[in-house]
Each structure stands twice: as C-alpha cells, then as structure tokens.
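Ops channel
N.P.: pipeline sanity check, posting one input/output pair.
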C-alpha cells in the first residue's frame, strides 16, 4: 500500500502545514469522500449519511461537477462541505506546477458557477503534491486536507472485510477518514460505509464536516 492505513507520525512531522486530523475531546470524526460526484453512488452516500444525521466533506473532481451539476448541488443543499480535488484528478508529482495550479483554478470556476461560493479546502489526488504546488495553494487561501485513516475502498484487490477493518481499528476522536464515492470503490463502499456509520455511532462518535 502506497500510504499507511493509519498515517504515520513521520509524515505529519515532515508536512506539518497539511491537516492530517482535527484533534478534539468530543468524539468527533470527519468522514470525507473523494472523486465524485458520481450518479447514484453519491446520492446513495447522501442517504446513508442522513440516517445518522451525519455531515461529511466531499472532495470533488471539477469534470464530474460539470457533468453532474444536479448531484453536486444536492450535496451542497444537504449542508455538507465541498473541497477541490482538481478539475481532472491530476497527480501532482507528475504534473508541472503551473499546469497543476491552472487545473485547480479551473475547478474553482466550475465550483463558483454552481454554488456562488468560493472553495478553500483542497485535497491532492493520490495524496501526492509537490511542495511548490502546496505553497502556492496555501497562498491562495487553501487548507490542504490529508487524512489519518484511509479505507482503501478503491483497491479492488482488498476484500470489503479488510477495508472495514482498516477503518474501524484505526479511527479515533479527530480522525479524518477517506472513502471514495466512485464506481471503482463502489463494491467496497456499499459494504463498509453503513457498517462504519453504525459502529462509530454506537461508540458515541458524531460525524462532522470540515470547514
């Protein structure tokens, strides 16, 4: 696996200006979804969240927003947070910084067109971003949101049971958890999201969005 399921302290030490978790004493956790909006899947996610009065943060791909504006606006109408995941899901390590920033701004244009609000949360696709790119984004006012728990729901070589274990064994108060509302992750997501919400709810956790 390219990154630890429970993000290693060393990464946090090397990149202290990124947000890896949001520590608190109130048993709040922060569920996030990458790569949407996706027809049917994102709408299913919203329904599952409503069952627990849960709020979440959706890191959207600009191209998907353009294709599925109604679903995007539904996420907003249900009072979840939205983050920038670039327009074309670019891998920062393999993309020139100028092109990466242009693609991020292209997302901004589409986001504002449909929401009339600025977006200041950013998650780099694949969790891979150059320091030069991150520096510019922070100057643009973005918070770079990473995670401390990742489900690996997108990895079709991992069983749904293992994906669930990845989340439940590593989540603690303040955790930022990564899921994906994408076709690639659907087989695992359909199994693990309801069980995650139920388990954590029964343990007294609440589900908050990132501001």
């Amino acid at each position: 696996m390219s990154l630890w399921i429970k993000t290693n302290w060393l990464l946090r030490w090397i990149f202290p200006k990124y947000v890896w978790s949001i520590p608190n004493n109130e048993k709040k956790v922060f569920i996030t979804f990458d790569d949407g909006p996706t027809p049917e899947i994102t709408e299913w996610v919203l329904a599952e969240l409503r069952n627990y009065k849960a709020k979440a943060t959706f890191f959207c791909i600009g191209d998907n927003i353009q294709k599925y504006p109604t679903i995007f606006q539904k996420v907003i109408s249900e009072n979840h947070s939205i983050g920038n995941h670039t327009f074309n899901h670019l891998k920062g390590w393999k993309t020139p910084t100028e092109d990466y920033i242009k693609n991020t701004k292209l997302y901004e244009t589409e986001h504002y067109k449909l929401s009339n609000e600025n977006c200041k949360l950013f998650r780099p696709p694949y969790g891979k971003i150059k320091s030069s790119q991150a520096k510019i984004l922070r100057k643009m006012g973005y918070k770079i949101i990473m995670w401390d728990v990742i489900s690996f729901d997108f990895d079709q070589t991992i069983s749904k049971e293992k994906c669930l274990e990845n989340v439940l064994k590593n989540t603690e108060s303040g955790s930022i958890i990564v899921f994906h509302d994408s076709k690639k992750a659907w087989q695992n997501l359909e199994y693990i999201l309801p069980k995650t919400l139920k388990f954590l709810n029964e343990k007294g956790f609440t589900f908050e969005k990132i501001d």
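N.P.: looks fine end to end. Confidence is low (pLDDT under 50) at residues 1-5.
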